[in-house]
User: Fold this.
Amino acid sequence: MATPTIVQHVAVSNMQGDMGSHTPLTIQLLWPSQAGNFLMLHLYTNNTAGMDVSSVTDDKSQTWTRTSGTTTNSQLNQFIYTFKNTVSGVRTVTINFTNPSGFCSYTLSEWFNVDQTTPIGAGKAISTEVTTGSTTWATGAFGTNPTAGDAIYQTGQAGAFPYNDQTGFTAGSNGGTYVLEAAEMCGGLVAQVCTNATGGSTNPTLTAGTSSVYNTMAVALTSASAGADNPNGFRVKRAMMMSLSPETTATPKYQFPCEGNLQVLCSSAGNASTCTLSSVTSSSASYAHINNSPLTGTFVGSFAMMYAKGFSPSRTNNGTITLTSVPDISTKGVVVWFLDVIGADPTSPLDTSTVTSAGTGTVGSNTGNQTVAGNLAPFTLQPSGGTELAINYLDHDSGSDTGVTGSTYNFVEPYNGQNGGAGETWTMDSGLALALISANATVTYTRSATAAGQWGSLGALFKAPAGGFAPDEDYWRIPQCPALEPMVTVFG
Assistant:
């Protein structure tokens, strides 16, 4: 049986409150889509009167379909938009709002082996709002019972925004054995998935560590042989962005479900050079800073890039982030990107052949002060041999990055169009660029019509195992029941 399978997954708990009149909102996939696949957006927004989504489109001129939408809730509006049988090469998704205000959070995913005629059957999408605090987040039963083999995908968002620090999430079991896809504890955003084991009445349910009012949505995806996985077995497969701005401790907890053997963390701490990411612990591996991390600047704040090698895939991976001071929500936006990398070298993934500042190397760092509007090119990454994974992170004081030039890099930004940059309270518009490269590549960030002011950037190259990397064999599959969940060893 063909099993609906996630190709890539992005989760952003957008805890900032200055969305104001910004529309449209542009968000990105990690990599260009594969032809014939299924694309899905789960979106939670403020429930301000008149707040709605007028359309969702992408950079291949495809108009997405609203599968579910509720704009009359007392806590949050919630929407599911999808596009079936996509063309290849979709990178950017554009969300057009009416009366935008406040915040939004979302998950964006690509799937293969989803039926491209009727990917979500009648009665197989559901959205629910619960206004009484609970640790059991349930959508209620689908209007039409799922069929055995359907993939059940559920997201949830704590409803009392933005101060909803969770102590953790636990995947559910109603209809099958679920695994977590995202678990953003500070913002209260969670996603889980399973393959429905037997069909029949199904009430997707997960457990939150902290009792909270919540909104939740779920779909049952019809299985069929369709589309294809990303052929690159060495890549970032999922990303989760966590905003620590409202935290009241210098040692916040995190939870990041993962399946790869390398984890990379990118962080910027707004206008707070005194609030620096010092260390990260994990239940599965040890994190280390790349060369020149953390990086601090006069106004731009501080940056960090860390990595954990030889990771054991774990959907319950969790740990502690240690900052040098408590975030101050009024002046010190702190953002952390978690990146789950599959197929990396298990023992020495970081290429440290050449460390550079502003020049060319395998590990780079740079800071500057842009006083005239224009693009930014912080440094050049140069692989020492073979195909390597380039990860570059940039933040700034003013304006927004709008993309990257050329086709080498893929651009990811949680919130494009924010009024501010690294020095802004929530610093949600930091730019992330990803690429698989085998020759020198300079990432050039395109900019809005505003000079960046003080800016800073860190970048690194990561290696596949000796002999290269194989196509993605999907060494995890969405489980049906514990007895069928595969035992997995990744690169020994």
